[in-house]
Amino acid sequence: MLNTTKKISIIISVILLLPLVIYTFYELSNLSENEKFLENIYSEQLNTIIFSVNQNVDDVLQSWSGKINDINQSPDSEFVKNEMIEFIKLNSSVSLIVIADSLISNNMKFYSSGGHTSAQNAVLRIQKILKSNSEIIKSLIEYKILGYNKIQPLVNNLDETPLLSFLIRDEKRELRIVLFVINMDKFIKNILSKRINSISNNELIVSIFHNKNLISYTGGNEVTFSDLLEYKKLWAFPNYFLGISTPGKTIKDIVRERSTTNLIMLALLNIVILLGIIFLFINIRKEIKLSQLKSDFVSNVSHEIRTPLALIGMFAETLELHRVETEEQKDEYYKIIRKETERLTRIVNSILNFSKMDSRSKKYNFEKTNLNLILDEVLKTYQHELNNSKNECIINKAIHLPDLELDKEAVMEAVINLIDNALKYCESKCKLEISTGIDKNFAYLEVCDNGIGISKENQKKIFEKFYRVTSGNVHNTKGSGLGLSLVKNIMEAHNGNVIVESKLGEGSKFQLKFPLNKIN
Q: Does pTM surpass 0.85?
């Protein structure tokens, strides 16, 4: 059995435990790489959000430039003026539109919600701005020639008012420079905030900073520039930053939290699998042990049956061949044959009864009877053994013991098993003391002996089916391993219990306790 258990342990380790150990080691060794990978994923996700906002702003500005270009295709200056003013009213984020013929031209048209203006000081300011951004204007011209309608922010050194520039063609197909003067407060409120709210979903804090000063934010509490997980410049407004953060967490915190969760899940997985392996190992070991016990049981029962059969056959043959000289010797042989027949019958009945009990098909016939009467009938069966000069038996029967509802045959079998064990496990002269009595709410029948005794460890196992002590003189004594298991089942059927008290080398006491509430 030991070698089989070792083989199974090795197989379980190779099939289940080894892959688990390798996988766990792999996960732990790659933990830092996984954290970096997760951090990169989060950064990419945040950058995608920022890109989405920038793309939305670009789409809005492109639609505006397309509308301005369409309006200026008309030769009717009054129509153009009215449409431009109407455009500004509909798009309050644009506070002023300027259309210039060239970088140095004095011919400029100004459109605002208040109407068309052309103040000389305004013209000079625009000329200075255009001259300082001449390279940007030239690049816009190159893009326009190639068919791209690009919008570029201009550097405004006079003040920090955001300016956007692009090119259109008028009704004569001439290039004109268009400037949008943007009201950033309204642009943030009317354009940016709507887009930001649609993507933040109250899980992210999306903030807008001007030169690292917080201008606006959505969701959560105010944050500083250093709190941002990711930030990028707005394409159209270089002095403005769009930043993303999470309430109370950084990317590293999120990644570490996820890594911790993964480690906990991995640990739980290991624990569950290890518990499963232990459970599997214990059950396999139990099955192997049960198989070994069954094998031992068959071997022991074979020896138990062979002995009475051999004796019966030998003495029957002797009688048959008329080799017995005296009648007294014949009577002795007849008694031995009868005794061995009864012994064989008990063995067979024990096996049959155990089989019925194990399959829960055993039916008990309860009737009103007395423990003293049951003991008397058992003593008749063991009269020959108990009267033997090697044995001594003391009987203590309680007076006025009440009748109980018992299965007489089953209880007799339990008592016989106890007496049989007491006789088998005595090393020299066997001294038995069999008593009946009442203890509180129980009537009892107990068998005490001066045998080899049972260790505390084995006292917990002797009522298991097929179990026999595997060391010392107990192992050398033949038996089926069913006797005490039958006793336990019989007592459970009577709502009673069996109690054992024993010390190695000092004998044993078995007590069958029957509840008095079974009295009729």
A: no
